[in-house]
Amino acid sequence: MNPFIRVNAGSIDWLARWREMYDAERAQGEAATDPAFRRQSDCWTGRAERFAATSRRIEQPDAFMQLLAPRLQPTDRVLDVGAGTGRYVPFLAQHVAKVIAVEPSPAMRTELELTLDREQVTNVQVCPENWPLREPIQAEVVLSAHVVYGVREIGPFLTALDAAATRLCVLFLGLKHPTAVLAPFWERVHGEPRLPLPAALETLAACHQLGLPANLELVPAGRPFRFAGIEEALEELQVRLRLGPDPQWEATLRQAIADLLVMTPEGALAPRHAPSHAAVIWWTPTSR
Prior knowledge:
Layout: H1 14-32, H2 48-56, H3 63-68, E1 77-81, H4 89-95, E2 98-102, H5 106-119, E3 124-127, E4 139-145, H6 154-164, E5 165-174, H7 183-190, H8 200-209, E6 215-220, H9 230-240, H10 247-260, E7 261-263, E8 269-271, E9 277-283
Parallel strand pairs: 1-2, 1-4, 2-3, 4-5
Antiparallel strand pairs: 5-9, 6-9, 7-8
Helix pairs in contact: 7-10, 9-10
């Protein structure tokens, strides 16, 4: 039995508020979608390779892994929910007995498999499913990095993480959705502020409403978006802004890129204003 008291911070139903934010953001995106926008059944089709390349530019361990690594044990099984292209998988695999990488996107899994081959990682099981899994499995440590923003029903997602972990649940996410740094592009193109998705503070409130004894720690944030050059930025922004191929939109975006992106010391392009901190939310599973 979970002895932790359920708390509705501010007497707000945070699970309902989460759905409201999610639905409003999605509705705004649909309303703004260019009729010529190329939709994909897997939203990462044509983009996963670029995402993987961006992830490889980030040296590991980053601030999140530096915080997590001391809590890992050599005999651990780690469940990485929404492993993506495997940003953290090779590092985790060096420190634990086994990593189970849950990733539903075929495009992301292709890049994940390439990452495992390139790094010669052999103690990783790839699970091609959505979360929660059809057949629950357990691990000492369950983590999920930058995934919750795209989840409409956050209650079942979080309680499944809690049920799967035997020692530690941990989330890594922004104080705002990472694409918040691209909001100036949205406003430049669509003429209105971009509505926000739930992020760290909403997640913390949802955890406590569910009776999950969550803690929040701040860590330094890296730049959420880095582009190798103008063409890469243009391709990604066209997708993020839901634009079809159009010379007028392209001209507008090229000017916005010139105005709103800056060159990093590594020679990449990144948004001018980046967050200073990200959040790590962690708790001891309620079954403990």
